[in-house]
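dumping the sequnces here before i forget
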Amino acid sequence: MSPGGLGEFEFIERLRRRCDPNGALVRGIGDDCAVARVPAGELLLTSTDLLIEDVHFRTAWIDMHDLGRKSVSVNVSDVAAMGGQPLSLFLALGIPADLSLEDLDRFTEGVLSACRDYGAVLAGGDTCRSPRGLFISVTVEGAVPDGLQVTRDGARPGDLVWVSGTLGDSALALRELLAGRQPPEECLRRHHDPRARVELGRTLAAQRFASAMIDISDGLFSDLGHILDASGCGAVLRRDLLPLSPAFLEFQQHQPEVNDLALTGGEDYELLFTSPPQHAEAVRALATPDLPLTEIGQITVSTDGLRIVDAQGTLRMPTRSGFDHFA
Amino acid sequence: MSPGGLGEFEFIERLRRRCDPNGALVRGIGDDCAVARVPAGELLLTSTDLLIEDVHFRTAWIDMHDLGRKSVSVNVSDVAAMGGQPLSLFLALGIPADLSLEDLDRFTEGVLSACRDYGAVLAGGDTCRSPRGLFISVTVEGAVPDGLQVTRDGARPGDLVWVSGTLGDSALALRELLAGRQPPEECLRRHHDPRARVELGRTLAAQRFASAMIDISDGLFSDLGHILDASGCGAVLRRDLLPLSPAFLEFQQHQPEVNDLALTGGEDYELLFTSPPQHAEAVRALATPDLPLTEIGQITVSTDGLRIVDAQGTLRMPTRSGFDHFA
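..and the predicted 3d for all of it:
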């Protein structure tokens, strides 16, 4: 039995009634498989994410509605990073006996609200009791016009490195939560309710502005490393140009050490992309007050590694080979 | 960090090296999303399953290679039940610290071996440590020619009810394991390494023999109930015709009460389908020595409910409305 005394079938039926009847699907929740039509001429994109209680989240810190939204956003962010449009979401839930039906309802409301934000539908999933902790697995399917998908391996020496939004807010919030302090509200919102940059990703792909793209989940340094590994390139990154939010800047005045979080903190879910210099003005024109786009460096040859420099070009961190980002 | 001191990236890299390079995919493991092409004129099928330690399996009972295979088969079985061909598999793993690297390797070998059996490729996933127990979430994508998908809602009064293979073996094995006894080997194999009936499902769909289909995961009684609910029908089921394996029959001689397991036990992963009577001979001709097909009843009008009768037509169980299959 599931929480609140609901059986599995009853829970699924509750959920099904709150979804669009089939939505864009040929068949939604309630059969052995969801059945969907991938738009003609488009490729299917799929990504899976795990969110495990006490590893990825603590229920004492995050509201269940936010957790539902975040579970969707972190997953959809992978589709955004390929330049695609999310279509269907699949939710697998291991539900501990002590989760109240009210909390479960708030969670699923959050899931459905984020799906609506991104134009996706909840198309299926699985639920069962979990003997130990809440376990969430989310799989998103999306589509991208064939040939427009933006992978990690297309960066070339000379390309500029861009990032959307601001960096480090989410990591700053986590740092404060772990220390038992109340984080700045704006940073906490970024940590609990990140937004996947779907529209930006689609535009960059459609205009063929991005040569490589990834979403920042592990942190700028680590995720840029993935692009460099896949593309066989190096990069030089201007540390002084990393975009920081007003809340982050204010916090940093008193605790300058948090500046590292913009480089190494995770869960920004901003888009990090490379783009040939001739597109620089056009890329800059895509920025909005809500979503700035910042040029933070340039791709170089692989033998350079990843170098972090300041405005004067002085090396501000060891080369990448000396930096263990698995630690 | 993951088991055996492997980091997440290292584990994914190990796994990636053991997969077909991209296989049938445009892009496999190693980018934000897997990228695939759904065959022209085909619909996309997707299903997700959870397997949680101490809910769905006990590591003391099942070998890790079998667990890997079973995780794939139970998921692929949903694609088989729609008449589809599995294409891609996505694996999300929450890995406890005490799982050895050897066990993890055996698990992934099992996953890959089952993928090969079904003609699918491991296309992506997510891994992280689990603070408590092994947590497996599997998502399969498949395809079926548009219009040939077999759903649960197509049964019509007069259709015959068919089932593949034999029933109750898996449930018998579980019963014995729970009682601390050694199950018959054949039943244990069915419990630990069930086979998804992909070829049969595809044939039934391609020939348009099946009007409704489901795989038996919750038990014949419950899963036939899903077809009846979706189709708005009743059924009469001949209890004496349920196909039983030699091992099951031998066991039943000493413990006749296990006969119920063929009706209510779960995890058979056989195909349960309905078919208009004019196809009866053609359906019968699809049976093989390894995979019998048995006619076990007939669809009736919904007011009849689900009636279980013996060879003489005597009611052998309460009508469905009096039977709580959520319990």
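Confidence is low (pLDDT under 50) at residues 319-327 of chain B.
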